Structure formats: C-alpha cells, structure tokens
Amino acid sequence: MTQKANSSSREHFGSRLGFILAAAGAAVGLGNIWGFPTQAASNGGGAFLMVYLIMIMVVAFPMLVVEMAIGRHGQANPVDSMRSLTSSPVGKRAGAAVGWLGLSVPSAVLAFYSIVGGWLICFLLGAITDLLGMEAATAWFKGFSVERNLFGTLVFYVLTVLIVQGGVKQGIEKWSTRLMPALFVLFAMLFIYIMTQSGAVEGLKHYLVPDFDKVWDRKLILAAMGQGFFSLTIGGCSMLIYGSYLSKKENLPKMAINVTLVDTAVAFIAGLVVLPAMFVAMQKGVQIYAEDGSLLSSDTLVFTVLPLMFDSLGLLGQLFAVVFFLLLTIAALTSSISMLECPVALVSERFESKRSTTSWVLGGLIALVSVVIVFNFGALFGLVATVATQYLQPTAALFFCLFGGWVWSRHSKIKELEQGCPEFTQGWFGKLWPIYIKFVCPILVTTVIWASFG
C-alpha cells in the first residue's frame, strides 16, 4: 500500500478536544495516579513536585512534539512513519527497525499493565460486593489468587479490545471524551471528601510546600526526570500513532502543550488526593513510613494503604473505595487502548485487514503472554515490567529522538510544524526546538537510561 493512498483514506480525530483527551488519556495511566504520588511521597513531597514540573517542560514536552510530528508527517503506523523521514534506502531500513523497536514497547507494557488493570477491576468489584455485604465474594476479589488475577486480566482485555475495535472516532475518541471528564469529576469528589478528614491538611502541606534543601538531590532529580518521561509515555509509540491521526490543519505544538497540561494536571491532582489520604491513614494508625523515612509499601501503596484508610471510615469510606477504584480503572483503560492501537494500526494498514478482527486477534495474542505471566507471576511480572519500562521504552525514545533530530532534515521538520502553525519559526520555541532535540534531548534521555542501570 502506498503512503499517499494510505493517508488520503486515513481516519482522523473529529475534534481538537477529542484528540487532546485521547492523547492525554494515553499518557494518563497508573504512572500518574499510582507512580507519581508514590514518587512524590518517597522524595520529599513539594520538592519532588517542583522538579517534576520543570522536567516535564524541559525533557518531556520537546520530545512529545517530536513524536507527534513524526506520526503526523508519516500519516501511518510507527514503522512506516519512521521510514518516511528519509529517502535513503539505508535510512529507511534503520527507520523501520526503530519503528519495530517502538512497537515492542506498547506490546510489552500491555502484557504486564493489563494484569494490574485486572487487579483494579477486581478491587472495584470487591468494593461493590463489600457494600452489598457479600463477604465471600469480597474476600475472593481482594485476595491474590491465580484465578482472580486471570479473571481480572481477561475482563480488562475485553474492555480494551471493545473500545479499540470501534476505530479512532467511534472507539478511541468517543470513549476518551467520556472517560477523561469522568476521571476529573471523581477526583474532585475524592479530594473534597479526603480534605474533611483529620490529618489531610498535613499531607497537603507536605505535598505543596517544597523543602528547598532537597531540590538539588541527584536521586530526586533523576526520579523526577524518569517520572516525567514515563508520564507522557515518551518512547511508548502512543503519541506517534495519535499524531498520525491528527489533521495537518492543527497547530501541533499547541496540541502538544495541551496534552502535556492535561496529563500533568492529572498527576498533580492525584498527588492532591493520595498524599493527604496517606496522612489521614497515618492518623488512623496505619504505618506508611519506615524508621528511615522511606515508604514501606511503595509498590502497593494504592492496593494496601488506601483501602485500609477507606475501611477505617465506615460506610462513606466503602462508597469512596468504589469511586477510587473506578477512577483507577478508567485511567488504566485510557492508556491500554492506546497501547493496543499501535500494533492494530500497523497490521490493519499493512494487510488491509478488518479492524475489529485485527483488534481481537492481536488483543488475544498479547493476552496469552499476560496469561503466561499470571501463571508464573513471581518469576516474570517484575522482569517484564523492568525490561519494558526501564530499558525498551527509554531506548525507543532515544532512537526516536536521534532520528527526529539527526536523520529527519531540518527543513522537512520545520515544514511539518508550520502546517497549522505558520509562525512556528518566529517564536523562541521554533528557533530553539530543532537544535534542542538534536543535542540536549538525547543527552537527557541517555541520563534517564544510565540512571535506570545505576
């Protein structure tokens, strides 16, 4: 299939808001609602928040523009979009290899992410059965068994595939414009509720008032840089694929800044809810920090500490447990649909296959990998998560960046961004950006990779 024929019939997002909410939804996942507050709690609250906000603008945003621009320029899946950046045969082969590497990221991430998504669905169902007084069912949903994990994972896949098979407008855009506002409403309800509890104000202070002594801590800076990077799914291919569904008439840098702002707002609001909730739990006698000041259960904060807090608050707490896990399930789904969309777009474009069939087949194949992980949880879960997020994703981001900075000609890059933003090169961002992604971004990404080995 030729590139031209492909782009003329290509489906696009129906509205700006639809694109912004879908792309922000792709970025908003458990990284924002689970990872960000946990990192903030582990790294001095306000100091971490301040450095994180700087890192989002300095590292993540310029790279988001690169990924979206590559996708929109190619008007195709990641492999063909990377090929379109150069006319040299060697460059095209290398570009395709980078595209395949990029595609391995969402597929590998989805394999473990859907298991966590399954836990959330089970905790949500457990919170509902708890409200209804169904003790045996609640114990099953909240227990950690192979059967429960398998059930949750498969339900999560079915929901993801059902949305992706609908296509860009009828599937991804339609559901993102419903799920994302729901996310903000549920957060607002939780925030108001938690702030009425004793201890919440202390948590809020810890989160919003930076300790300037900690701002220069190397560990904190690296943690904030890594978190900012994963928060916007840089290197995860989702932004590249969503960029390819963006009309040439749209102002791409403006769209990227809107996606960045929505995504950062969700992480910020998650901190507003989770950190005060931790301090409320501490007031209730739940131990959160160890003697040395480190978080006791950083990886299970969302699954252990917060449910304990909800349990201690009676019936209202049980109701809000339902709200909280519904919120997390929504966040997980808005990300998983973008992960599945990456391989689905490639296969349905290359083979002109039916989208619904492709979605079920590819969803089923990745689900099989998840099933293997569920049955060998201890050996595989941590391994797959580490390989996908600490090695594959930053490496793909580095190659996207090198290709966007060095292989894609400056003239062609500028031309792409001037479509929909004719005054791009007049502003300071337009003057700085081509040099910045050529020299500064690769160094910053290499630092993130180096830190993950440290």
Structural topology:
Blueprint: H1 3-8, H2 16-27, H3 30-42, H4 46-74, H5 78-83, H6 89-131, H7 135-142, H8 146-164, H9 167-195, H10 200-208, H11 218-231, H12 238-244, H13 252-283, H14 301-311, H15 314-350, H16 355-375, H17 377-407, H18 410-418, H19 428-453
How is this structure best described in words?
The chain has 454 residues and is mainly α. The protein contains 19 helices and no strands. The chain has helices at residues 3-8, 16-27, 30-42, 46-74, 78-83, 89-131, 135-142, 146-164, 167-195, 200-208, 218-231, 238-244, 252-283, 301-311, 314-350, 355-375, 377-407, 410-418, 428-453. Mean pLDDT is 86; it is low at 1-8.
List key phrases describing it:
mainly alpha, disordered N terminus
Largest sheet: none
Q: Overall mean pLDDT score? A: 86
Total number of helical segments? 19
Shape: globular
Quick structural gist:
The protein has 454 residues and is mainly α. It is built from 19 helices and no strands.
